[in-house]
Amino acid sequence: MSAPRILIIDDNAAIRDSMGDSLRLEGYEVEEASDGKIGLDRLQAESFGAVLLDIKMPRMDGIEVLQALGESGVRRSPIIMITAHGDVETAVECMTRGAFHFLLKPFETEVLIAVVEKAVEVQSLRNTVAEYRTESCRMLGESEGIQAIHATIQTVAPTQARVLILGENGTGKELAARSIHALSDRFEGPFVDVNCAAIPHDLIESELFGHMKGSFTGAGEDREGKFVQASGGTLFLDEIGDMSLDAQAKVLRVLEENEVRPVGGKEVVSVDARVVAATNKDLKEEVEEGRFREDLYFRLNVVPIRLPALRDRVDDVPRLTEAFCEQLCRQYGSKLKRFSTDALKALREHDWPGNVRELRNLVERLVILVSKEEITAEDIFLERRRTEDRSVDLFSQCETFEEFKATSERLFLQFKLEENGGNVKRTAEQLQMQRSNMYKKIEKYGLRS
Question: According to CATH, what is the number of the domain 390-449?
Fold first, then answer.
């Protein structure tokens, strides 16, 4: 295991040499920068186990370096501020801007070593947590398209840039959004997701911005909106393409002013939420057709990420299948099952209109219904036939008429959702049902869209 790297940023060569020699004797790898600008460039390009940053320097002082790091959104290494001119006010300012510790010259070598050891320990813990967060939110796959998406997410996550995630239903847009949040400096803050298509038009403003008690019928108490709930974290606006033009105008104003006014409220509330949006629609086409505001599109589309359909990365199907199988076997407490070579071949050859979500749903049914340890291509064929035929004897299953109606409705809606690849909008249109009612049914029966 390589030694932790320490970066010393100080314009005094003698001090750099003195601190560097002490740290090298403790086994650290030491690198140096002779002024704040050089040090800032290094910190924006790579991370260190700890940074020793002098406050008083020409060109760019230590406080300016801290400020620039904060504005750039770069995840910082633990920074230990050093100065011969320190006072309580300066120390407080440095800590407020994110410094890890504060040392006043002259200091004992033992004190320096102790503080650096603690900073390195904290950074090591941060890295471990970051690796866990990355793996828990990471999109599985080794295809070229997925690797390119991983690289983009790694680059954009530490910044404050807004991201627009594009892709068909079931491609993993929410997972991509959670990955961006997990790898950002906001990871300790909330991740608040809003399905814009599921909120009735007359409630969207209340849902996003909050409301005051008595502001409308049913408003029995004050309620925070999603923008306020997401302050300090990430607000994920899913299916943003289904939002009404009126709601779009209000969201645009929040993005421009970073403040909201609750419905029925007189005072504005400041918000600090990073917005990540997603849609399965072509927003350029929606703009041309007058269904989406061009100015909001440009606000959201700072960094676009387009997720490929599963049929365009079939090489990832075996990896996804095995990962889902292992995960679901653990979830259901069953013995670990495996997919045969012919089963994986059959899965690769499927068209997957419902993308990754459809694959996971199929694997889940097979894990539950197939009793043997190896799942074969025949098992997949039989399960698909069962799904298509729905040859379930409801008459013997249900004891009451109400139970029969609920069971048949649940099976019918699940079948139609899967038939439409999990696309709620298309399913609702096919069934001539209000989309908001469709979402209520999905929630009522615990269906997978």
Answer: 1.10.10.60
**Tens digits of residue pLDDT in 75-95:** 568 999 988 766 667 777 788
> Are the beta carbons of 162 and 302 closer than 8 angstroms?
yes
Q: Would the pTM of this model clear 0.85, i.e. be above it?
A: no
| Buried residues in 405-442 as b, exposed as e (16+ CB within 10 A) | eeeeeeeebbebbbbbbbbbbbbbeeeeeebeebbebb
Token pair, residue 145, equals 């398209």
CA distance 323 to 316: 11
β-strand pairing of 374-375 with 338-339: parallel
- Total residues found in the chain within this entry: 449
How many other CB atoms are found less than 10 A from the CB of residue 332? Answer: 10
Residues 435, 428 contacting (CB under 8 angstroms): yes
Helices (H), 157-307: 173-182, 204-209, 226-229, 245-257, 283-288, 294-300
pLDDT in tens, 4-30: 999 999 999 999 999 999 999 999 999
CATH of domain 155-308: 3.40.50.300
Q: Give the CATH class of 5-133.
A: alpha beta
